[in-house]
Design a protein that fits this description.
It is found in: Nucleus. By secondary structure, the chain is α+β, with helices and mostly antiparallel strands. The longest helix has 28 residues, at 573-600.
């Protein structure tokens, strides 16, 4: 299928690829303001009639369950979700189609609503493809750095040779020398998907590409990588004696010999040409990157900011893009809705998986409803419209444990808005604190979701690490960053269960605790989502809190505070059943930590405190709701009991173990919750 030239450039050089634009980024904003400011809701899809599928879903994916509650079942959202949970959580995601009478009004002011997008490069989203693109960028920078730039990637079978996969295949066979000696180039070609009958120059072509382009870089990398310090430490810093206003060499720290001092176009550090290893004899004519930045190409990946739009402006952008994208010499598309969902899904994964085809789209994602407003009726403005499925209500329903958190977690308590266009996507992730999420589509084109059951989380994460070890080496916390896709087909091959579901207007999608999910939009649409946490989530919430502590990730709230506040505010016989084991675990964990701390630091003073401040460990960032250790040298800096040694170098006599609850207080909590649970059993 032929592609519009603005979007696709096979085998593009790095300099050329910088010219690829998002649908409107290269147009002055003023040229886009002659459109109606108010979106005509009659111009967007409002019904959820599914099209007839004409072919199996890509990768042979199994559909996630679709539930149709009766009007009676639909009255209580959390109770209904709990009733289907035993079956539904086995899929990670499910869809709920409300009764036909459920039609909440779209309450957003479409005239005043404006939002900013983020730009997504599809071939940089898939993990393997991004590693591929990063490697190609590094190789191109290397050859340009040493005076022999790559003008064109060699081709075989009328397509560019995949240099990254060529490198990986050669590694599988033991390296270049073994492949050469044993004449394995044809086997490597078959491993890369080439057919020797159709490609007579296969062995010579692969050998030539490897020896001319890949091998020089790999040899240099092996010799140089050990010498490169990837962190900003003293060896890379300029000597304090040098004038801070002058560029100095990061190797010898001298600012003299300015005529041979190069400045890296990325990190802006200086290097004498003679201090480099190997040294450069002449200054590069074009941009120049130090060796550290060359090797680190691509490790700062994230989504860039896009344009600012009204809904009507973005609708026009979305419509024009989709029509142009799917129109070629064999097919004319007049309207975005003329493209089938199957064609759109297949094309999305083609673009994500191909490192040589570039496509940029924009996504109005993670728009906070406190700033932009919710599309559901406001409870303050319209008390007549009482709807428990209103996403503003879900987190504060009586069964939701979020009501017991005093700290500000507005990011999880209020809905977020999402304005999609064709191919805009959300990458693999699970929800903060392993909570549930619920997403409602107000109107627009289909959103396709992929879900992985929580039980397969470990297999999924290991598959990700095995698939793109280079990305995890650069970014160990990659799984927390919501910037990486991996093909469902690849996951299925590794025995990871993946399910799919298509969401249309008026439908809810629920994701279950710990379940990874991802997906993409087929076109212009408007969705809203929020998190919630019923009692069955508690154990997984604790598991996630421990995971955050291990990875030194900032949590959104204190899991222990939630349990203690539930105990204080709502210790009923019903709550006691799930609260008892959670409180017992919390108190046992805390008492063990206190005993260990007292044994290691017998001179440590201790005191009780009643501060309202929710302290966080300065080392691992976990909340220290029950206790912390501080020092007189910096009383606002605290650590949890696991990291007392990381606090400071002061003598232990200057430090204090601060307890919000005494040992006896913790024992009393357990005693009371046991009594309440016993009363429930007797009743």
């Amino acid at each position: 299928m032929k592609r519009i030239s603005l979007r696709v450039t096979p085998a593009r050089t790095e300099r050329e690829s910088d010219q690829v634009k998002s649908p409107t980024r290269n147009k002055p904003y003023a040229t886009r303001t002659n459109l109606p400011e108010t979106l005509d809701l009659n111009s967007v899809k409002r019904n959820n009639d599914p099209p007839v599928r004409t072919k199996p879903r890509i990768f042979g994916l199994t559909e996630a369950p679709i539930y149709h509650p009766t009007p009676e079942q639909f009255k209580d959202p959390l109770q209904y979700i709990e009733s289907i949970r035993p079956e539904a959580e086995q899929y990670g995601i499910i869809k709920i189609v409300p009764p036909a009478s459920y039609k909440p009004p779209f309450s957003l002011n479409t005239e005043k609503f404006r939002f900013r997008t983020r730009i997504q490069k599809l071939n940089s989203m898939e993990g393997g493809t991004r590693a591929n693109v990063n490697y190609l960028e590094q190789v191109q920078k290397f050859h340009r750095l040493f005076g022999h730039p790559i003008s064109r990637i060699p081709q075989l079978d009328k397509r560019p040779i995949d240099l990254y996969n060529l490198k990986k295949e050669v590694e599988k066979y033991g390296g270049y020398q073994i492949v050469n000696e044993k004449k394995k180039w044809a086997e490597i070609g078959r491993g890369m998907g080439y057919n020797r009958r159709e490609c007579t120059s296969l062995s010579n072509g692969l050998k030539s590409a490897y020896s001319r382009i890949v091998l020089p870089y790999e040899d240099w990398l092996e010799k140089t990588k050990a010498k490169i310090i990837l962190s900003d430490n003293a060896n890379h810093d300029v000597n304090d004696s040098a004038d801070s206003d002058q560029l100095a060499c990061a190797v010898c720290h001298s600012s003299e010999r300015k005529d041979e001092l190069l400045e890296c176009d990325d990190c802006e550090r200086g290097y004498h040409m003679s201090c480099l290893d190997p040294p450069l004899k002449t200054a590069p004519k074009d941009e120049w990157y130090c060796y550290k930045c060359l090797i680190a190409s691509g490790n700062d990946y994230g989504f860039e900011d896009g344009g600012e739009y009204s809904l009507s402006e973005f609708q026009k952008v979305c419509e024009d893009f989709k029509v142009k994208w799917f129109t070629d010499e064999t097919r004319t598309v007049k309207h975005a809705t003329d493209v089938s969902e199957e064609d759109c899904e297949n094309e999305f994964w083609r673009l994500v998986d191909d490192p040589h085809v570039e496509c940029e789209v924009e996504y109005g994602a993670d728009l906070h409803s406190t700033q932009h407003g919710s599309a559901f009726p406001s409870m303050e403005r319209d008390n007549k419209y009482v709807d428990p499925w209103n996403l503003n209500m879900i987190p504060i329903l009586p069964q939701s444990l979020f009501t017991h958190i005093k700290s500000d977690i507005s990011g999880m308590m209020v809905p977020w808005l999402y304005v999609g266009m064709c191919f805009s996507a959300f990458c693999w992730h699970n929800e903060d604190h392993y909570t549930y999420s619920i997403n409602y589509m107000h109107w627009g084109e289909t959103k396709t979701w992929y879900g992985i059951p929580g039980d397969d989380t470990g297999k999924f994460e290991q598959t990700m690490r095995d698939a793109v070890p280079e990305l995890f080496e650069q970014q160990p916390n990659l799984l927390f960053q919501l910037v990486t896709m991996l093909s469902p087909g690849r996951l299925l091959k590794e025995k990871v269960r993946v399910f799919a579901v298509d969401q249309r207007p008026g439908e809810f999608v629920v994701t279950f605790p710990k379940a990874y999910h991802s997906g993409f939009n087929h076109g212009f649409n408007f969705c809203e989502a929020v998190n919630f946490a019923p009692p069955d989530w508690v154990d997984l919430g604790l598991e996630c809190a421990k995971r955050y502590k291990e990875y030194k990730r900032h949590p959104c709230f204190s899991h222990d505070e939630l349990l203690v506040n539930t105990f204080k505010m709502e210790l009923t016989n019903d709550n006691a059943r799930w609260l008892k084991p959670a409180l017992e675990e919390m108190c046992a964990r805390e008492m063990n930590a206190r005993a260990s701390t007292r044994e290691k630091h017998p001179a440590l003073l201790q005191a009780c405190h009643e501060d309202d401040v929710e302290y966080q460990c300065d080392f691992c960032h976990c909340y220290t709701h029950l206790s912390h250790v501080s020092c007189s040298c910096a009383e606002k800096v605290v650590v949890c009991l696991d990291h007392v040694e990381e606090l400071c170098g002061c003598p232990v006599e200057s430090k204090r173990l601060m307890l919000r609850y005494s040992d006896q207080d913790l024992d009393d909590m357990v005693t009371q919750v046991k009594a309440a649970d016993k009363a429930q059993e007797n009743w």
